[in-house]
Each structure stands twice: as C-alpha cells, then as structure tokens.
C-alpha cells in the first residue's frame, strides 16, 4: 500500500505543479490583456476630451465673428475691441489646434495646418477690414475657417472611431 501511495504521490505532485504553472501563465496573460486594453481605452478617452475641448471653442470663434459684424454695422463702434477679440480668439484656436497634433497621428496634420491657415487668413482680413463695404472678403474667409474647422473635427472623430453626432 505504501508503494501505491509513493507512486501516486509523485503523479499528484506533478499535476499540482503543472496546474500552478498553467494558472500563473493564465494570470500573466490576463494582466497583460487588462493593461493593454485599459491603456487603449485611456488613450481614446484623452483624445475624445481633446476633441470636445476643440469643438467647444467653436462658439468663441462664432461669438467673435458676430461681435465683429455688429461693430462694422454700427459705424465702427468698438471696431478696435472687436479686432482685439478676433486676434485673441484666433490665437487661442491656433494654440488649441496645435495641441491636437500631440494626441493624433499624422493624418490630421494637414487638416490642422489647413485650419490654422484659414483662421490666420481670417484674422489678417479682419484686421484690414474697416467698413461694411469690405465685408465680402471677411465673410468668405470666415466661411473657409468654419469649413476647415468642421473638416478637422470630422476627421478627429473618425480617427477615434466615433461619429461626430456621437452615435458610436
């Protein structure tokens, strides 16, 4: 009987060691997968926060544009203040759009550059505009800036796998 226990105890020991090794490997794989997916989720969340911040700043550009138009239409009342606000908003937009390059791949770089060029052009035209008769170039550059922002925003949402409407 002792011989039977001796022979089978070795088999039981081998089985226990083998089970422990398999369990350890499974735990390591589980830890790796958890880390990998949580990192990817955190990266996506950071990107979505950057996009939301960028989109939220759209209202600043529209407000500055409205203030500029109101100043031009009211016989240049506070036009200098409207131009200062436009410069400030454009500088903020340039900064925010430049920050996007840190969080997104090279596919958005061209759109960021296009947007920055469009809002810089808008600022240049705004600084030169002094009367309602000169509003056509300003309106065109304002439209280009908004279109460039919309294109950039759409590409940003696409790059994180989310539609702009937030349906994904």
Report on this model:
With 168 residues, the chain is an all-alpha fold. α2 (58-73) packs antiparallel against α3 and α4 runs antiparallel to α5 (135-159). It has five helices and no strands.
Key terms:
single chain, 168 residues, Four Helix Bundle (Hemerythrin (Met), subunit A)
Radius of gyration: 30 Å
Helix content: over 70%
Q: Could you tell me the mean pLDDT?
A: 84
CATH class of the domain at 45-159: Mainly Alpha
- Write down the overall geometry: rod-shaped
User: How far apart are the first and last residues' alpha carbons, in Å?
Assistant: 67 Å
* Strand proportion: under 5%
Total strands: 0
Q: Indicate the CATH topology of the domain at 45-159.
A: Four Helix Bundle (Hemerythrin (Met), subunit A)
Quick structural overview:
This protein has 168 residues and is mostly helical.
Which SSEs are present, and which pair or pack?
Elements: H1 2-56, H2 58-73, H3 79-103, H4 109-128, H5 135-159
């Amino acid at each position: 009987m002792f011989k039977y226990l001796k022979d089978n105890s070795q088999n039981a020991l081998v089985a226990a060691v083998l089970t422990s090794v398999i369990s350890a490997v499974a735990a390591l794989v589980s830890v790796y997968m958890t880390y990998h997916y949580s990192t990817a989720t955190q990266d996506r969340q950071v990107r979505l926060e950057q996009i939301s911040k960028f989109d939220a700043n759209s209202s600043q550009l529209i407000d500055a544009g409205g203030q500029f138009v109101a100043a031009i239409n009211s016989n240049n009342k506070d036009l200098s203040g409207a131009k200062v606000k436009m410069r400030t908003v454009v500088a903020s937009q340039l900064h925010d759009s430049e920050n996007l390059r840190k969080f997104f791949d090279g596919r958005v770089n061209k759109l960021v550059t296009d947007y920055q060029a469009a809002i810089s052009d808008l600022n240049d035209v705004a600084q030169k505009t002094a009367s309602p008769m000169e509003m056509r170039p300003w309106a065109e550059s304002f439209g280009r800036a908004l279109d460039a922002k919309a294109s950039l925003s759409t590409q940003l949402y696409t790059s994180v796998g989310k539609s702009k409407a937030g349906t994904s």
